Every structure is written in C-alpha cells, then in structure tokens.
Amino acid sequence: MITTDILIIGGGIIGISVARELNARFPDMHITLIEKEPTVACHASGRNSGVLHAGFYYTADSLKARFTAEGNRLLTGYCLEHGLAIDRCGKIVVARDENELKGLFELKQRGDRNGVKLDVIDEKDLAEMEPNAKTFSKALYSPATSVVKPKEVVEHLAADLQGRKVNVACNEKFIKREGAFTISTNRQKIQYKHLVNAAGLYADKVAHLFGVGEKYTLLPFKGLYMEYKDSRHFQRHIYPVPNLGNPFLGVHFTKTADGKMKIGPTAIPAFWRENYQGFSHFNLGEFLEVISAEARLFCTNAFNFRSLTLQEIKKYSRKYFIRQAASLAKKVDITQFGGYLTPGIRAQLLNTEKMNLVMDFVIEQGEGSTHILNAVSPAFTAAFSFSKYIVDEVEGRLWH
C-alpha cells in the first residue's frame, strides 16, 4: 500500500496537465499519476494530428469555446519557451458551394464571439495567400492555428514533472476500486485523498465504478490519415466547412510540424476501444458492447448515425478518400498519395438516455473523485486552460 494526496489515472495530455497545474498551485502536495502503457501519450494524445486549434468552431456557451483560445496561447508559449517543434502556419477554411458559405459565416460569428481573430478573404486574397486552395467566393483565414508534434509535447511535460513531488508511474494499470479512497493496480494498492479520472478511452468504465456518469458510454471512432508526399504547393492547413451538427471536421489537408502534408482524418465507427489495426487489442466484451450500441444507433438513425456511418465507411476506398481532399485544392498529384499513417481512436461520449453524441467536454464529480468523461478534440489544444478549470473543481472538493 502506498499513499498519495492526489491520484491521477491516465498519462495523456489531460492527466499530465492536471498534474502540472496541481503541482504549480501546491508544490508540497504528493501527486501520483498512473499510466497502463510503457510510456505516456500512447493513445489519443500521441496519435492526433498535432493541430493547435484557434477556437472558432464552438458555440460561445460551451467549455470548448471557453478554453480553446487560451489553451492555444498557453501551449504555443510552452513550445516556444522549451524549443519544441511548432509550425505557426495558420489555417484556411474553404467553401465548396453557396450553401457552405452560410456555414463559413457562422464560423466567423462563432470566432468573433469567442475572441478568435479570423479574416474573411475573397478568391483574389486566397490566391495570393494560399495559391493552391480552392474556394467558392469566400474563405476564412485563421492565423492562430498551428501544429506541433503531440507525443514530443506530452513526453516533455511528463519529464518536466519528474523530480518534483509528482510520480509518473508507467506500466501501472488501474484494476478496480477497493473502497473509499483506495484503488488497486496490477502492482499494488494506492490510497489517496482525491482521485482524478483522465483515463481517455476508459474514462467511462472507471467512472461507473464510482457510481458516476452512468448515463454515458464511450464510442470509439477510428481516425486514419494518408501521407501526401508533395508538400511544395501548401503553406497552411486547408479545411472544409464542417457539418456543425456533428463533432467531426471532415477530410482536410494537414501540415505536420516537420513540413510534410497528410490528408484525413476519417471518423469510422470502430469495433472495440483500441481497434487500431487488425485484431490488435481485441476485447470480446468491448466488441459486443460497442456493436450493440452502434447497431441501436444505426437502426434508429439517432443524430443521423446511419448516414454518418455510411459516409465514413466509403473512406475505406482510397479513391473516395483522396477525392474528398482533392476537392479543396486546385492541383493535386494523385501519384503523390502514399500509405496510411499511424491510426488514432477518438473516444467520443454517447448519452445513452438521449442517444446522441456529446459535443462538449464533460466533467462529473463522485465521492473523493473527479471524472473527465469527454475530452475529445480540441482537448489537446485546450489542455492547459482546461486543466485549470479541472483543478479549480478538485481544489473546491479538497478543502470543502
């Protein structure tokens, strides 16, 4: 049995950022972070696009709107201060037809409400700024959007915590709740004053053991990117106007922090939580649970899940996937598309009472515990700002 003041489950950017914020406020507090994998950032935090979003996609009343712009500024500052790779390239959002112009101007209004600098540009301005981008009449330019190497960022944050009163313990897997203020791992029992659940793909499973978040379950969606070898004709990210009714942004051209280009991602319903490739990490119980939920959604077509699924499954066709991206640019060399890159899984929260995907971040409280149930994109960008909010909640519970 070991004892700690704060126990954090999950070594992704949210768990690490919460540990960092707690340590900054309470340097004498003992903090233990456990991660089931051999290193931090093995899942969503290390497999995402690395894009630091500006914060204009989200409605003003959302937590995402509240934390993304500040999170972008703070994480950008951290990368610059510590010499981490960052390309402050900016982003262009293009419209494909007149109907999408409405969505474009809705994004501009959201950006204005959220305090995010955005410029509406015409086709002439676009031709000067990003000659290969193609739009209908108008486009949006976001100067604050950039890109980093996500795994490098999280590993640096974790290394920076070592030597303080923070113990980042890898290969340490949460097994079960033993009772009030004690859990067991694959190695030992840990007694704590407060627990923070930042378990990502398994956050709902952990929360349910504490009697929290029982109306929620996580649905996994697989994100695939494809390499585009000719980066000469792209200076910035190029995104389409998304369907604002669902949480996915559509296939786009993404610049990487080392100057390469890729297209993606998909948002294909996965069959178990770590369904990255083939039958790796296959779990029969998860398979049955996920398939059951997806079948129910498909049959009822809740939040247009059926059409969303059929649209996403088409992206398994290489030609269709490339065609989605090619519509955003004037010149695309089909021969320059390479293989698929490291896949990721989006841990998307489903409200099983309303049968809809939860769009915003979700935090719920339990006995001696705080549970981060929905930390999907742009959680990486928002991590520093979001973690302040989480620690405010923890601090209120600790000294209550």
What's the SSE blueprint?
Blueprint lengths: L1 E8 L3 H13 L5 E5 L8 H4 L3 E2 L10 H20 L3 E2 L3 E4 L3 H16 L5 E4 H7 L8 E5 L3 E3 L1 H12 L4 E5 L3 E6 L2 E4 L3 E9 L5 H7 L6 E8 L2 E3 L8 E4 L11 E4 L5 E4 L3 E2 L14 H17 L4 H9 L4 H9 L10 E4 L3 E8 L4 E2 L4 E5 L2 E6 L4 H20 L2
Parallel strand pairs: 1-2, 1-12, 2-9, 5-15, 12-23
Antiparallel strand pairs: 3-8, 4-8, 5-7, 6-7, 10-11, 11-12, 13-18, 13-20, 14-17, 14-19, 16-17, 20-21, 22-23
Helix pairs in contact: 1-6, 1-11, 3-11
Structural class: alpha+beta
Count all strands and give the number.
23
- Terminus-to-terminus distance: 26 Å
Major sheet attributes: 8 strands, mixed
Shape: globular
CATH fourth-tier homologous superfamily of the largest domain: FAD/NAD(P)-binding domain
Q: If you consult CATH, what is the topology of the largest domain?
A: FAD/NAD(P)-binding domain
CATH architecture of the largest domain: 3-Layer(bba) Sandwich
Q: What does the average pLDDT come to?
A: 96
Number of domains: 3
Which stretches are low in confidence, meaning pLDDT under 50 for 5 or more residues running?
A: none
Assign a percent range to the helix content.
25-40%
Strand content: 25-35%
Radius of gyration: 21 Å
CATH class of the largest domain: Alpha Beta
